[in-house]
Amino acid sequence: MDTGLSYNRGMQQPDYCPLCRFDRTRFVDSVRNLDAHCVTDALDLVETHSCYFVCEQCGTVFQYPPPTFDEMANYFKNTKVSDSAIFLDVKKDLFQQRLGFLKTHIGLASGRVVEVGCREGNFLKLLKDTYGYDVFGIDPSEHATQMARSVNGIDTKTATLESLDLKAEGLYQAFDLAYVMHAMEYVYEPGPFLTQLVQLIKPGGYLYLEVPYLGYPYETLICGKYIFRQQLSHFLGSGLGLFLKSLGITVTETLIDIGHSYPSFQVIGRKMSYAELGESLFRQELDHMNARYIEAGQKLNHLITDYSQVALWGAGYDLHRVLTLMPSLIQPDKLVLIDENPNKQGKQLCGIPIRASASVTTANILAITPSAEALRQDILKDVQQRFPDVPVVELFAESEKKDTLNIV
């Protein structure tokens, strides 16, 4: 069965990073790890070697080629949960620590909580009994979810998160907190996993995410360690944080836990409300627009530096934004401003007189100022007729070329 990845097993290099989809990765090393083959009541741990690569953009270290889908499915289907008193006491202490972390940084009141990778539901039971939360668990292991229901009384769904139709299941934006503790490292593509995970959370709700932690240099932190083959990815905090930000999650708190044999990176993030998301997207659009205006202004500055006189065609909003963002460009002695709209002629834009093209007899170079493609093309036709021998540039041309366009 296909893993869902577009990796090419015949190539030495993977096609992309499974978190951010960046297409530049480099080989780290072949690592000795443990391949967990499930038997009746315990794990048969077989030593194997796996190749790991690092993403040049987000720093995620991941296994390639990964185990097959059937291997992973068999692992989750047959993994048994230990019920020893020592094991349960250790887990309970760990869960209490995580509850303390959550209470300190987000507060714990009433609401709905979903845990993805809930296993037997011990954490959800503790959360329910301690704070009265309405809890729900998702896990691909039938044995684990059955135990969660029968022993701990936790409502669960036996599935991978990626396989669920959240709206059909009534899970879309249904939870005040989504909790994921050491589950994402078992996912083939953590990018789509996180995208789906965020859809579980109500606007204004929270995400708790805990994953294996990596820092620099990679070789000293991963190579030579015993790592289960089924743990597919290991994450760098900064790269993970940037990806969460792209999904509308504001990281509010992080913690690196190195008190255990396997270092963990803990993240608490808040999902933006609709108002916050709208404001954020609007500001991003403004930043993008301003960046375009500044780039156009830089082009105009080069023209002013290289030519004794520059004609500008189009006295509109785009040119006004360029000149107000970069007022040093307002040089009436070097700029001639043309616009064929008679309502504008005789007036001024940023102190520069607006003239009809018929009143301009010559120009060293002409710059078309509007950003709209259709308007630029209309002006270009007029320029070709009026100034056939004058070189022309478009301040907002989509092309990255900086050369002037000579009109013959």
Q: Label the structural class.
A: alpha/beta
CATH superfamily of the largest domain: Vaccinia Virus protein VP39
Counting structural domains, the number is 2
- What is the strand content? 25-35%
Given the C-alpha coordinates, what overall shape results?
Answer: elongated
Mean pLDDT: 83
User: H/E series, N to C?
Assistant: EEEHHEHEHEHEHEHEHEEHEHEEEEHEE
Helix content: 25-40%
Helical element count?
11
The tally of beta strands, per DSSP, is 18
Largest sheet: 11 strands, mixed
Write up what this structure looks like:
Helix 2 packs across helix 3 and helix 9 packs across helix 10. The N terminus and C terminus are likely disordered. The protein folds into two domains: 197 residues, 3-Layer(aba) Sandwich (Rossmann fold); 124 residues, Rossmann fold (3-Layer(aba) Sandwich), CATH 3.40.50. The N and C termini lie far apart (62 Å). The chain has 408 residues and is an alpha/beta fold. The strands form two sheets. Strands 1, 2, 3, 4, 5, 6, 7, 8, 9, 10 and 11 form an eleven-stranded mixed β-sheet that branches. It has eleven helices and 18 strands.
Topology readout:
Layout: E1 25-38, E2 43-55, E3 61-63, H1 69-78, H2 85-106, E4 112-116, H3 122-131, E5 134-139, H4 142-150, E6 156-158, H5 166-169, E7 175-181, H6 190-199, E8 201-214, H7 218-221, E9 233-236, H8 237-246, E10 249-257, E11 264-271, H9 274-306, E12 310-313, H10 317-325, E13 335-338, E14 348-349, E15 352-355, E16 365-368, H11 373-386, E17 391-394, E18 405-406
Parallel strand pairs: 4-5, 4-7, 5-6, 7-8, 8-9, 12-13, 12-16, 13-15, 16-17
Antiparallel strand pairs: 1-2, 2-3, 3-9, 8-11, 10-11, 14-15, 17-18
Helix pairs in contact: 2-3, 9-10
